[in-house]
Design goal:
- The protein is an alpha/beta fold.
- Helix 9 packs antiparallel against helix 10, helix 10 packs across helix 14 and helix 15 (about 560-565) crosses helix 16.
- The longest helix is centred in the last third of the chain and has 28 residues, at about 660-685.
Length: about 850
């Protein structure tokens, strides 16, 4: 239902966000407005390495928070002229999915065939991906869904196995039997990055050990008395004079009578406990270090379920098959009975636990696959320093993590649903145990089903372990580019176009995992950075600034929130958080977002009623100022303010400071445009006491301002801006397809800067505010009529003539019959007030209309 002019359609009276958002989301998908244009050169392409969410997790506000913030950048880069490669991945393999399946389907992986369990995992993974896909689409993420991937697909398995083979060829992976952090609940080894510390109550126990050949007793303080049967040595510091006489002697453990050597080690802290410690295989990482350094024997008493096993003698009957925590209390009872427990103090201490299951970890010697990282710590820190970090201080977290590494990266897991290692072990005579690697042509390979070339089933033992899910997520850039390096490239042209990526957006808590592991893989495969920029988001907290959790009952469901508030309002809330900062969920901010959406609609309705006077689509604002169509001082002032807003927003977006960009846009919209400019020119726009040229100068100006405003807000509130754009700028919308199309970001140069008009406009606002203040102090309406305003300047003022040119608009905004520079001409002291502007440069005499005349 168009009006007589081709550039505009009639705007509905009200905005139905729920209807419009669903309709627009479908239209954007149908028209592929966000599709990556792979024909453009690399310099015109912007590549995002999007976080693949773990589909086993619940949809939560953190997803809304961080993914929306990345989308602000994607939309800006697209509007700024780049074709944006913006994929969505789903991390659906590995232990997290297995745990979800076991929980939701009420099954155990060990109670069914491996094949049936994997099929169940695949089914649940697809259901979860569908839920996430729906959330992200309802949030209006400008993802190119044709580039979707998931980490257990055939393509991802192939790339992950390529990665493994490439690193094996380079000697950067190895398999070794060594003590590993073991999760007794999930029954798998885990990597250093998957550990979290938790506080638990315990006891600090002084226990007496005998010294062979003497009556002396050694007192050892420990929190893990259950490890006494695994003791292999006693250590003290070589400079500790208290124990120097024990060098070379042998201690005897209480209860179990095990003879162990007494040795020295510089790592022992003389001030800690009694200054003498036992080394057990294995109680903690310090035990591992001393076991290796001193070439000690292994005495294992814990099985993979975290239970004591293999203890001989009378105590074995009591202790075997007890979980470690239960055995601890039982051994303390036995020590107390034997008189060897001298003191026991209750404490609360930090215990290393599995991040996923929450279970306290044990240390067991197992065969695992490792990627070498300790050899590359300096090189990895140098690589991290070459990337641009936003905000910059987040790089410190990467440096601290690399500095603190003490283990190579364990990538093998004793589970079922994951990427198989492309490996077999030979059973042929003469090459028993030889590692057989798959050929690239076989990938993706399943060694449980497939065979290495030239071998029969009886001649090989397949590797049953699968890769940790991070081993696949760490090649997310290559999952999109479909290559590891030139030798392993399917389509090297695509790889060159998409690698390295321009942006890695992610949350701060996975710097040590996803960011680090991706850096490792890129360094080892191609001696390259995987991305040029990292954009680190914070957490979404509950309203009381605590972490959201179901147990606290303070979670907010994003699907419900989007349904009730609308995506634009929720996105607005996400934009108010500074990059990298944790932000509390706020109903008040959502209300501000709703107010903005309504204000955009109502301001556009006002502007649209006057744009019907346009006879054709205007040229750029710069061209119209040059031609004289836009001629008035305040029109040139507001265009200058818009120029500065575009410049500021562009600068902040280029620095990934989306929040500061939004502040600049909002400041222009609310303050400059709505509160001031529209109030100042409203009378002129309506044609009150002005010639047609002055009126059309304002009409053309509000056209350009609204066009710029909608484009500037588009990355933040994409639905209402595209809806309004399609009505008011129908011709432009049809030509581009959407306000979100490539190349639609406003150019500051199209809005001319007139610094003289800017100064005069600023002074006009000072005068308007002074008049408004006088009305407010007298508790009268802003529309109350004024007969005369006389203005004098405190000091020399070189803008008098251009300031006078604003008085016509100032009269309309203040409802004044006459405004002039000079002395008061009226003679009604009872109705005249004098005031000084807040900047002190102007004196005003204001003659208000008589109350009787107003009545």
């Amino acid at each position: 239902n168009k009006n007589k002019h081709s550039h505009m359609k009639n705007l509905p009276e009200n905005y139905d966000s729920s209807e419009a958002e669903k309709r627009l989301q479908k239209a954007w998908l149908d028209t592929s407005v966000y599709r990556w244009e792979n024909t453009l050169p690399r310099e015109q392409t912007y590549v995002i390495d999007t976080p693949p969410p773990t589909v086993s997790g619940m949809l939560h506000m953190g997803h809304v928070f961080s993914y929306t913030q990345a989308d602000f950048i994607a939309r800006y880069q697209r509007m700024a002229g780049k074709t944006v490669f913006y994929p969505m991945g789903f991390d659906d393999n590995g232990l997290p999915t297995e745990r979800l399946v076991e929980k939701t389907k009420k099954v155990r992986a060990t109670d069914m065939s491996r094949e049936d369990f994997i099929k169940l995992c695949e089914s649940v993974g697809e259901e979860s991906r569908a839920e996430f896909r729906e959330l992200f689409q309802s949030l209006a993420l400008s993802v190119d869904w044709q580039q979707e991937y998931h980490t257990v697909s055939a393509s991802s398995r192939r790339i992950s196995q390529m990665s493994f083979l490439d690193l094996a060829k380079k000697g950067e992976v190895y398999r070794k039997l060594q003590p590993m952090l073991w999760d007794p609940v999930d029954q798998t080894a885990i990597a250093q990055a998957e550990v979290e510390d938790k506080e638990f109550p315990s006891s600090f126990n002084d226990i007496a050990f005998a010294v062979e050949g003497s009556d002396e007793k050694l007192v050892i303080a420990t929190t893990r008395p259950e490890m006494i049967p695994a003791c292999v040595a006693i250590f003290y510091h070589p400079d500790d004079a208290r124990y120097a006489h024990l060098k070379g002697k042998t201690a005897i453990t209480p209860l179990f009578g095990i003879r162990v050597p007494i040795l020295t080690d510089e790592a022992v802290e003389p001030e800690k406990g009694t200054g003498i410690m036992m080394c057990c295989t294995f109680g903690d990482e310090a035990d591992i270090e001393k076991w290796r350094k001193h070439n000690l024997e292994i005495r294992l008493i814990l099985n993979k379920y975290g239970k004591l096993t293999g203890i001989e003698g009378e105590h074995g009957e009591v202790l075997n098959n007890l979980k470690a925590t239960v055995a601890r209390e039982k051994i303390l009872e036995l020590l107390k009975a034997s008189g060897d427990l001298l003191e026991s103090k209750p404490i609360v201490h930090s215990v290393k636990c599995a991040e996923r299951s929450g279970a306290p970890l044990e240390i067991l010697p197992t065969y695992q696959w490792f990627v070498k990282v300790l050899d590359h710590k300096d090189a990895l820190k140098a690589k991290a320093a070459k990337a641009e970090w936003h905000p910059p201080h987040m790089k410190v977290r990467m440096d601290q993590w690399i500095d603190g590494l003490s283990w190579d990266w364990c990538i093998s897991r004793q589970r079922y649903f994951g990427v198989p290692f492309p490996v077999w072990y030979s059973k042929r005579a003469g090459e028993e145990g030889k590692i057989l690697f798959a050929d690239k042509s076989q990938l993706p390979v399943n060694p449980l089903v497939d065979l290495p070339a030239g071998y029969t089933r009886d001649e090989v033992e397949p590797e049953a372990d699968v890769m940790d899910t991070w081993a696949t997520s760490s090649v997310s850039p290559q999952l999109s580019s479909h290559a590891i390096n030139a030798e392993f490239a399917d389509d090297h042209a695509r790889h060159e176009q998409l690698f390295p990526a321009d942006l890695r957006p992610q949350a701060h808590e996975i710097i040590r995992t996803w960011a680090f592991y991706t850096l490792v893989k890129s360094h080892l495969h191609e001696d390259s950075l995987p991305w040029k920029n990292l954009m680190i988001s914070g957490w979404c907290l509950a309203a009381d600034k605590s972490k959201m959790s179901k147990s606290k009952g303070n979670t907010v469901t994003p699907t419900d929130l989007l349904a009730t508030k609308g995506a634009d309002v929720v996105r607005y809330w996400a934009s108010t958080s500074k990059l990298g900062a944790d932000t509390a969920f706020s109903e008040d901010v959502l209300k501000i977002g709703r107010k903005l959406v309504n204000k955009l609609w109502n301001a556009t309705k006002f502007v649209a009623t006057h744009l019907a006077h346009l006879k054709s689509t205007p040229a750029t604002a710069a061209a119209e100022v040059e031609s004289g169509i836009i001629s008035e001082v305040l029109d040139r002032w507001i265009l200058t303010r818009l120029n500065r807003a575009i410049e500021k927003a562009t600068k902040e977006f280029e620095a990934y400071e989306y929040s500061d960009a939004r502040v600049a846009v909002e400041d222009f919209f609310w303050n400059d445009f709505c509160d001031n400019y529209l109030e100042l020119v409203k009378s002129r726009v309506y044609g009150n006491e002005v010639d047609e040229a002055a009126r059309m100068s304002a009409v053309h100006t509000i056209y350009h301002c609204l066009d710029g405003i909608l484009r500037l807000f588009a990355p933040f509130v994409p639905h209402v801006t595209d809806e309004l754009f399609s009505y008011v700028f129908d011709d432009k919308h049809q030509a581009a397809g959407s306000i979100h199309a490539r190349g639609t970001w406003p150019r500051a140069a199209d809005y001319p800067r007139d610094e003289t008009a800017e100064k005069a406009g600023k002074d006009c606002l000072v005068l308007l505010e002074a008049v408004r203040k006088q009305k407010s102090e007298r508790n009268i309406s802003i529309k109350f009529p004024i007969e005369e305003v006389a203005i004098s300047v405190q000091e020399s003022y070189d803008l008098e003539d251009i300031l006078k040119a604003t008085f016509g608009d100032l009269k309309g905004a203040s409802n004044a019959a006459n405004i002039h520079l000079g002395v008061m001409q009226g003679n009604e002291p009872s109705r005249t007030v004098t005031a000084t502007s807040e900047d002190g440069r102007f004196n005003l005499s204001v003659l208000f209309a008589a109350q009787s005349e107003v009545a």
